[in-house]
Amino acid sequence: MKKLIGLIVSLSLLTGILAGCAGTPANNSVTSQVAGEADTEEMVWPRTINDALGKQITLKEKPKRIAILDFGFMETMFALETPLIASTFAERTLKGFGTLQSYAANTQIEELGEAKAPNLEKLVALKPDLILYTAEPEHLDMKLYAQASQIAPVVTFNSPDWKKQLGEFANCLGEEKKAEAYIAEIESLIAESRGKLSGSNAKTVALLFESTGNKGSFFLSGSAENPVFFNKESGLGLTPPDG
């Protein structure tokens, strides 16, 4: 669940579409050990991050030059209002994701190329003080991880729950308050939308997405494994189709 900003757009559109069909008008595990007080404060450094690979990374101060080796993290960084200096598939992501269009014109993120073979020489020249990478088994490359670790501290993430992942990023970046506010906003929107869609419970719903950077290619999601859309208590409460 890497797409966070996209939830607002998707939920609003879906609520409008399904409420319209029903005849109802629609309204528009990373943890941190922080030095100092017992309750975590955003400005307390250094802090030690226990990342998704079980590594302990101590950050002496709040990161200022951050690069990502998983372009899917870009939305999370925007949600936390945290600037990036570089990303894999930077240009394709900024231009291809509809949810990022409002950021693209005012954002300068250096292109690191392919996710499987990023330009590490360019990354070295950019002098990041933190690199963020995925620990998802299907995308994790331990050789790349080792190479990146020679450039700057690398923190990995792998959480299927969007709220947990946003909290993990926030702990790493010192943006806990922004994460709490964003989660509260999204949860409120989900609860409101679930009420508007209650008349559509008898319908089954699938989600169609256009593939990023590959116009005309789509993927279909109709699985209950998408809790934001299909969970009855914490999501929109929609019903996925069979099969």
Quickly describe the structure.
This protein is an alpha/beta fold and about 240 residues long.
What do these coordinates show?
By secondary structure, the chain is of the alpha/beta class. It has a domain at 31-180: Nitrogenase molybdenum iron protein domain (Rossmann fold). Helix content is 35%, strand content 15%. It has a five-stranded parallel sheet with strand order 6-5-4-7-8, sandwiched between helices.
Class from secondary-structure proportions: alpha/beta
What spatial order of strands do you see in the largest sheet?
6-5-4-7-8
Let me know the number of strands: 10
Largest sheet: 5 strands, parallel
What is the terminal separation in angstroms? 21 Å
Q: Which runs of at least 5 residues are low in confidence (pLDDT < 50)?
A: 22-29, 33-41
CATH second-level architecture of one domain = 3-Layer(aba) Sandwich
Share of residues in helices = 25-40%
C-alpha Rg, in Å?
19 Å
Question: Proportion of β residues?
Answer: 5-15%
Order of helices and strands: HEEEEHEHHEHEHEHHEEH
- CATH-assigned fold name of one domain: Rossmann fold
Secondary-structure blueprint:
Elements: H1 5-21, E1 31-34, E2 47-50, E3 56-59, E4 66-68, H2 74-79, E5 86-87, H3 90-96, H4 101-104, E6 110-111, H5 120-126, E7 130-134, H6 142-149, E8 154-157, H7 162-173, H8 176-196, E9 207-210, E10 218-221, H9 227-230
Parallel strand pairs: 4-5, 4-7, 5-6, 7-8
Antiparallel strand pairs: 1-2, 2-3, 9-10
